[in-house]
């Protein structure tokens, strides 16, 4: 269900192709770019796109379409089709994302129950579905029906005994190992990019970084299948984060069907949600809303939760919260912040150890080992044996008269005549105390095992495990407050709002608040976190407790470090991503630009005196992504900037298709050809690939301004000048190195390898 707020991640906006304008030639000189060829204007893998160039190309494409639409009715129809293709893409994304979300939910429910038993009447039914269809199910034993049999009962015919328990235990572990082994094997063989959450990489891709294949068709297929297997294995992971990756793959898949999307890397990334992009255009908001509407309709039609609702953990409490309860809510926020800090530091330390030791060479063995430990320790405790989603749902629930959960084993007053939905606070029975011990053990287990699970080479989300930790802690606190209010209702903190025989405290609400607090402590989300909790629970009237817990958890966690788990993994992997933190150091552009002192001079091209051989030698001897073009080496007056890849493709194409272009042919970027003797070889005109308006700053520009420009404009590089004279260049990686250096970190350790 969480993918409903992310399906617009990667799919809206208008893309463009490179315009084909007429250029002035001289004599019979050939400007071979009059006919564009494939790969011009594209980018190499693991490089950053030029947002300003992509925007300019899209503007030119729009201008051309608008101009042609006035020429004929057919061109006008084509312009309408071009404008409406964005809505068509969003419709397709919504349909596919909603369908995949529903199918994944149904498959996870069935395969999770398959570890314990099977439905004899229909093998594809989960435990709950199997007993729904049974006419022999009673209300008291609604989880038991003749059609559903556990594996030991099916094999031996017995339902109780030590042998039955051990056989069910063994088969539970065996199924878990099989599911996880299959998941990690599929990822390793067919789609290595299908592992992990995907959110750190998605944030980096949307900021302009190229990772070929990360949003491909194979990644979509394998991630969908292995996500079901990984969650069903019982590992402490969720599916909400990977669903963001799945939704982005859907967007990329349909974008590739339309040339206006597939030929403009900038417009592909214009669409995003929540915390994963730099800006959010208004037209994208409407298209994303439309895609979410289609996905919600599709998911509602599939009804994967079996309750005719769109939310995963629907709650309906009958008691309002009171102002005095803000104290335990805030305490849960403190716990969430501390848990988030602990998890991030321990998980990053473990992932760094995985990357830098031999442990990283055995991903299959690691997954099998963690799965085995998880299954062996989880089975004896009923709160860790079941799926994490079922656990959270039970912790969120209010204890009504019809609830049979151990958490609802209260001592009832036989003279009680209250309505069913207004049961007063009651003393806890033995079942509640037993459940508290089991929940405490489950809390410790979830805290520890999640640290080692997140980041393995299988699809692994963090939303559900984080919510489970908070929900367990919140339910424990809620029961404690409830019992204090019952036994000590004359205390001053309870006296004004909790009278004897009243329904004062709802432990399920504390579980929901705790879940929000722990999720906020790990991700450092606030507003979007509260919205997500609304989507998952439908609890709109509890906005104040949720906001109080979310803000408190963020404040506490930020006191120990500003990075959320996704930003920490971005830094661990060295992705070139500029976060939203303010840069407050008093440095200038001249302190960061290259070349530095004692470094070779900046590699440049001249506008009309560089030969093809000079360009090829420069490309061979350097690995720069582009080169400034100046009037001459003496004046160093800046003319423009040309991309390395465009130079390589154009020179290669000219040598193959244009007669007379040899190594000593002059390359010129001016409108008119230079004056050269008639005996010289034919010159090569490359003005069209020259960016005549590269972004520039002066050498005294504060780095605070430069960082803000890079962040908001998505620059790949900017040139540093003084009175029009080129002094140096600042790239995105230079900015990242400088920011790391200012934070006393190793500048080279954060670079992507």
From TrEMBL:
<feature type="transmembrane region" description="Helical">
    <location>
        <begin position="169"/>
        <end position="194"/>
    </location>
</feature>
<feature type="transmembrane region" description="Helical">
    <location>
        <begin position="509"/>
        <end position="534"/>
    </location>
</feature>
<keyword id="KW-0967">Endosome</keyword>
<dbReference type="InterPro" id="IPR002246">
    <property type="entry name" value="Cl_channel-4"/>
</dbReference>
<feature type="transmembrane region" description="Helical">
    <location>
        <begin position="435"/>
        <end position="455"/>
    </location>
</feature>
<dbReference type="GO" id="GO:0005769">
    <property type="term" value="C:early endosome"/>
</dbReference>
<protein>
    <recommendedName>
        <fullName>Chloride channel protein</fullName>
    </recommendedName>
</protein>
<feature type="transmembrane region" description="Helical">
    <location>
        <begin position="322"/>
        <end position="344"/>
    </location>
</feature>
<keyword id="KW-0472">Membrane</keyword>
<keyword id="KW-0050">Antiport</keyword>
<feature type="domain" description="CBS">
    <location>
        <begin position="593"/>
        <end position="657"/>
    </location>
</feature>
<feature type="transmembrane region" description="Helical">
    <location>
        <begin position="364"/>
        <end position="383"/>
    </location>
</feature>
<dbReference type="Pfam" id="PF00571">
    <property type="entry name" value="CBS"/>
</dbReference>
<keyword id="KW-0812">Transmembrane</keyword>
<dbReference type="Pfam" id="PF00654">
    <property type="entry name" value="Voltage_CLC"/>
</dbReference>
<dbReference type="GO" id="GO:0010008">
    <property type="term" value="C:endosome membrane"/>
</dbReference>
<keyword id="KW-0129">CBS domain</keyword>
<dbReference type="GO" id="GO:0008021">
    <property type="term" value="C:synaptic vesicle"/>
</dbReference>
<dbReference type="InterPro" id="IPR000644">
    <property type="entry name" value="CBS_dom"/>
</dbReference>
<keyword id="KW-0067">ATP-binding</keyword>
<keyword id="KW-1133">Transmembrane helix</keyword>
<feature type="domain" description="CBS">
    <location>
        <begin position="690"/>
        <end position="748"/>
    </location>
</feature>
<comment type="similarity">
    <text>Belongs to the chloride channel (TC 2.A.49) family.</text>
</comment>
<dbReference type="InterPro" id="IPR046342">
    <property type="entry name" value="CBS_dom_sf"/>
</dbReference>
<keyword id="KW-0406">Ion transport</keyword>
<keyword id="KW-0547">Nucleotide-binding</keyword>
<dbReference type="GO" id="GO:0005886">
    <property type="term" value="C:plasma membrane"/>
</dbReference>
<dbReference type="GO" id="GO:0005794">
    <property type="term" value="C:Golgi apparatus"/>
</dbReference>
<feature type="transmembrane region" description="Helical">
    <location>
        <begin position="284"/>
        <end position="302"/>
    </location>
</feature>
<feature type="transmembrane region" description="Helical">
    <location>
        <begin position="462"/>
        <end position="481"/>
    </location>
</feature>
<dbReference type="InterPro" id="IPR014743">
    <property type="entry name" value="Cl-channel_core"/>
</dbReference>
<dbReference type="GO" id="GO:0015297">
    <property type="term" value="F:antiporter activity"/>
</dbReference>
<keyword id="KW-0868">Chloride</keyword>
<keyword id="KW-0813">Transport</keyword>
<dbReference type="InterPro" id="IPR001807">
    <property type="entry name" value="ClC"/>
</dbReference>
<keyword id="KW-0677">Repeat</keyword>
<feature type="transmembrane region" description="Helical">
    <location>
        <begin position="87"/>
        <end position="108"/>
    </location>
</feature>
<dbReference type="GO" id="GO:0005524">
    <property type="term" value="F:ATP binding"/>
</dbReference>
<feature type="signal peptide">
    <location>
        <begin position="1"/>
        <end position="17"/>
    </location>
</feature>
<dbReference type="GO" id="GO:0005247">
    <property type="term" value="F:voltage-gated chloride channel activity"/>
</dbReference>
<keyword id="KW-0732">Signal</keyword>
């Amino acid at each position: 269900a969480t993918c409903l707020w992310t399906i617009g991640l990667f799919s809206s906006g208008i893309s463009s192709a490179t315009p084909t304008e007429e250029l002035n030639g001289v004599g019979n000189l050939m400007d071979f770019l009059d006919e564009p060829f494939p790969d011009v204007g594209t980018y190499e893998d693991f490089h950053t796109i030029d947002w300003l160039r992509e925007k300019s190309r899209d503007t030119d494409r729009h201008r051309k379409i608008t101009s042609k639409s006035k020429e004929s009715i057919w061109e006008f129809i084509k312009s309408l089709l071009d404008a409406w293709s964005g809505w068509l893409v969003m419709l397709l994304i919504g349909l596919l994302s909603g369908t995949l979300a529903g199918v994944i939910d149904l498959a996870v429910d069935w395969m999770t129950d398959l570890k314990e038993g099977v439905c004899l009447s229909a093998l594809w039914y989960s435990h709950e579905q199997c007993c729904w269809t049974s006419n022999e199910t009673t209300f008291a034993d609604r989880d038991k029906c003749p059609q559903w049999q556990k594996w030991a009962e099916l094999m031996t015919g017995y339902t109780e005994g030590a042998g039955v328990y051990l056989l069910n235990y063994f088969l539970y572990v065996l199924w878990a190992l099989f599911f996880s082994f299959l998941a990690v094997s599929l990822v390793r063989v067919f789609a290595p990019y299908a592992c992990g959450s995907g959110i750190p990489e998605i944030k980096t891709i949307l900021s302009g970084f190229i990772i070929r294949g990360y949003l491909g068709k194979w990644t979509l297929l394998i991630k969908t299948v292995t996500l079901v297997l990984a969650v069903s294995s019982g590992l402490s992971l969720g599916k909400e984060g990977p669903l963001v990756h799945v939704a982005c793959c859907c967007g990329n898949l349909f974008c590739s069907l339309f040339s206006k999307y597939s030929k403009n890397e900038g417009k592909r990334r214009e669409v995003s949600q929540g915390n994963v992009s730099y800006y959010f255009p208004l037209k994208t908001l409407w298209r994303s809303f439309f895609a979410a509407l289609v996905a919600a309709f599709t998911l509602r039609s599939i009804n994967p939760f079996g309750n005719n609702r769109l939310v995963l953990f629907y709650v309906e409490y009958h008691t309002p919260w009171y102002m005095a309860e803000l104290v335990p809510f805030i305490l849960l926020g403190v716990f969430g912040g501390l848990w988030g800090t602990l998890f991030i530091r321990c998980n990053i330390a473990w992932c760094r150890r995985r990357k830098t030791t031999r442990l990283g060479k055995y991903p299959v063995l690691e997954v099998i080992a963690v799965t085995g430990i998880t299954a062996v320790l989880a089975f004896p405790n009923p709160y860790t044996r079941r799926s994490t989603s079922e656990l959270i749902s039970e912790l969120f629930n209010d204890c009504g008269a019809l609830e049979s959960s151990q958490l609802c084993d209260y001592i009832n007053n036989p003279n009680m005549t209250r309505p069913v939905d207004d049961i007063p606070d009651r003393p806890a029975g033995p079942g509640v105390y037993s459940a508290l011990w089991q929940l405490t053990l489950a809390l410790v287990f979830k805290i520890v095992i999640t640290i080692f699970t997140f980041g393995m080479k299988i699809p692994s989300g963090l939303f559900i495990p984080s919510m489970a930790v908070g929900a367990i802690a919140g339910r424990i606190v809620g029961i404690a407050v409830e019992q204090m209010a019952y036994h000590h209702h004359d205390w001053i903190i309870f006296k004004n709002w909790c009278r004897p025989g009243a329904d004062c405290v709802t432990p399920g609400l504390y579980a929901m608040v705790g879940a929000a607090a722990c999720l906020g402590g790990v991700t450092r989300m606030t507003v979007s976190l509260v919205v997500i909790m609304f989507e998952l629970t439908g609890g709109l009237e509890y906005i104040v407790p949720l906001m109080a817990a979310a803000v408190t958890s963020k404040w506490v966690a930020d006191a120990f470090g500003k990075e959320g788990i996704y930003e920490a993994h971005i830094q661990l992997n060295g992705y070139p991503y500029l976060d939203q933190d303010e840069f407050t150091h008093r440095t200038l552009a001249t302190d960061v630009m290259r070349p530095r002192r004692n470094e070779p001079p900046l590699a440049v091209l001249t506008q009309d005196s560089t030969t093809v051989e000079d360009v090829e030698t420069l490309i061979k001897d350097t690995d720069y992504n582009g080169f400034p073009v100046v009037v001459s080496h003496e004046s160093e007056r800046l003319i423009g900037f040309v991309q390395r890849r465009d130079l390589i493709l154009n020179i290669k194409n000219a040598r193959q298709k244009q007669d007379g272009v040899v190594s000593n042919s002059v390359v010129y970027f001016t409108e008119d050809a230079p004056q050269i003797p008639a005996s010289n070889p034919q010159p090569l005109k490359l003005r069209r690939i020259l960016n005549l308006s590269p972004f520039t700053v002066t050498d005294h520009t504060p780095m605070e301004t430069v960082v803000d420009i890079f962040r908001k404009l998505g620059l790949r590089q900017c040139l540093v000048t003084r009175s029009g004279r080129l002094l140096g260049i600042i790239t995105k990686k230079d900015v990242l190195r400088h920011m790391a250096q200012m934070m006393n970190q190793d500048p080279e350790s954060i670079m992507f390898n």
